[in-house]
Design goal:
The structure holds 2 protein chains of 2 kinds.
Chain A (H helix, E strand, L loop, with lengths): L8 H8 L5 H13 L1 H10 L3 H15 L5 H8 L4 H8 L6 H20 L1 H25 L6 H6 L4 H26 L6 H4 L1 H14 L5 H21 L9 H20 L12
Helix pairs in contact in A: 1-3, 5-6, 6-10, 7-8, 7-10, 8-10, 8-12, 8-13, 12-13, 12-14
Chain B lengths: L7 H9 L3 H22 L3 H17 L10 H17 L3 H4 L3 H4 L7 H7 E2 L2 E2 H7 L2 H12 L4 H8 L3 H19 L1
Antiparallel strand pairs in B: 1-2
Helix pairs in contact in B: 1-2, 2-3, 3-4, 8-11, 9-11, 10-11
Classes of the chains: A mainly alpha, B mainly alpha.
């Protein structure tokens, strides 16, 4: 490790000052890689401040909390670390929420597989409401651990809102789509519930500065359940996702989204209503 | 602080186990010469400081991927020089001031002349006679340890050119020293 000979201090001095010749400098460098003693002499010849400063930065990195799994995956997908952290804090990404979503879906799936019409009704009630509930929880304040953080973040509210809504959808839609596809009904059922879900989310977001998101989502949930159940009693639960109904729901969704975008300045009030 | 009789490889192993003391010891041993060496290749102090800290952060994060068969100083320098290059990639003005290209003073101190004398042949004089284009290629490959592809990117010339210049530089050196 240590060499048997050492550099003359004057050589090290001129090297530290950047005055050594090209080849002289190169051999000093080769020696310094191997010799700890000469490294120690060099340290005394160089200003300490930059080294100390760099060390502080290194230690800050080493001691910083490691990003969670979700956060690292998001960051590797190209999100900035700030966005990734905000998104990872969305309640829909926490274990309990995911477990809840999963359980509800499994129950709905089992029910659907057991009895044709009743199960289908159950699925149609539950599937669109999951993402709506997720969005409501993400902006409701009560359930959001990052509520204060989001409230004070100098960040475009519209962007944040879309980001977090996207996160909620990503966490609940794939499972639900899969479930819909394995259900006994027609294949398009797996996607048919998406329109009411989008309509519900858009409505929740559109009225949110005025009304509490949890409340809006609950009202939408009751309305939607009522619609599906009455369709069931009238004989055909699929009526709520028939083409005409899809169009109506899509129109509602578009309208509500337009309201969201137009009112984006007032979105800064999101989650801050009493 | 970790014990002083630990080898560098021991320190890296300890760092893979998230031992901060080992990182501190490694930093104390190697940060100075890395900083000095970077500073000789780049006049921008902020860039040097940034590259220095990035190097040790990368060493910390990558400690578990270090293979025990290489020398630690060479490993650290390998990280540092590549960081410096990617940091300066878009700034050819700063970049092309490597030590061998700029300094051409022939006067050597007595100590340096001793250092440079290799089998009674004065490498320094031989080197100072070859053209700067050949010298910078030698510097990047032989001294800084880059491969020909990296040197090509850095100098913004084709890889084949780097290889042929390297050959020419070797041939010239051999002639000069014969």
């Amino acid at each position: 490790m240590s060499a048997t000979w050492h550099l003359d201090t004057s050589v090290l001095e001129s090297y530290a000052a950047g005055r050594s010749t090209p080849v002289g400098g190169a051999s000093v460098e080769a020696h310094l890689m191997e010799c700890r003693e000469c490294g120690a002499v060099l340290r005394e010849l160089m200003p300490h401040e930059p080294l100390d400063q760099a060390w502080r930065a290194i230690r800050a990195h080493v001691e910083a909390p490691r990003a969670g799994l979700v956060e690292r995956v998001l960051a590797s997908l190209g999100l900035s670390s700030e966005s990734a952290r905000l998104l990872a804090a969305v309640p829909a990404f926490r274990g309990a929420w995911l477990l809840g979503v999963f359980t509800v879906l499994v129950f709905a799936g089992v029910a659907a597989a057991l009895a044709d019409d009743t199960g289908l009704t159950l699925f149609l009630v539950v599937a669109p409401l999951i993402p709506v509930a997720g969005v409501a929880a993400s902006f409701g304040g009560d359930a959001d651990p990052a509520h204060e953080l989001v409230t004070v973040t100098p960040y475009s509210s519209l962007r944040l809102l879309l980001l977090r809504t996207g996160g909620v959808l990503a966490s609940s839609v794939p499972v639900t789509v899969l479930l819909g596809l394995v259900l006994p009904g027609p294949a398009w059922l797996g996607l048919a519930w998406l329109t009411p879900a989008v309509a519900g989310i858009a409505l929740t977001l559109a009225v949110s500065p005025r009304f509490d998101t949890t409340m809006t989502a609950a009202v939408f949930g009751v309305g939607w359940s009522f619609a599906v159940l009455s369709a069931y009693h009238l004989g055909d639960p699929m009526a709520v996702v028939e083409p005409l109904m899809q169009l109506v729901l899509a129109a509602v969704a578009l309208l509500a989204l337009a309201v969201v975008v137009l009112r984006s300045p007032s979105l800064d009030l999101l989650g801050r209503n009493p | 602080m970790a014990g002083c009789d630990l080898t560098d490889a021991d320190l890296i192993n300890a760092m893979a186990g998230k031992d901060e003391g080992a990182l501190r010891e490694l930093y104390d041993r190697h940060a100075t010469w890395i900083q000095a060496r970077l500073a000789r290749r780049c006049a921008d102090r902020d860039a040097v400081a940034e590259v220095l800290q990035d190097t040790f952060i990368a060493a910390w994060d990558g400690a578990d991927r270090f293979r025990g068969d290489g020398a630690v100083p060479a490993w650290l320098w390998g990280i540092a020089i590549r960081r410096l290059i990617s940091r300066l990639r878009r700034r050819h003005d700063v970049l092309l001031g490597p030590a061998l290209l700029d300094r051409d003073e022939p006067e050597l101190s007595a100590e340096e002349q001793v250092l440079l004398r290799l089998e009674n042949v004065d490498v320094g004089t031989a080197l100072s006679r070859i053209s700067p284009e050949l010298r910078v290629v030698l510097q990047l490959t032989v001294i800084d340890g880059l491969n020909t592809r990296e040197a090509a990117v850095l100098l913004d010339i084709p890889r084949g050119t780097v290889k042929s210049r390297l050959q020419r530089a070797r041939a010239t050196l051999r002639e000069e020293m014969a």
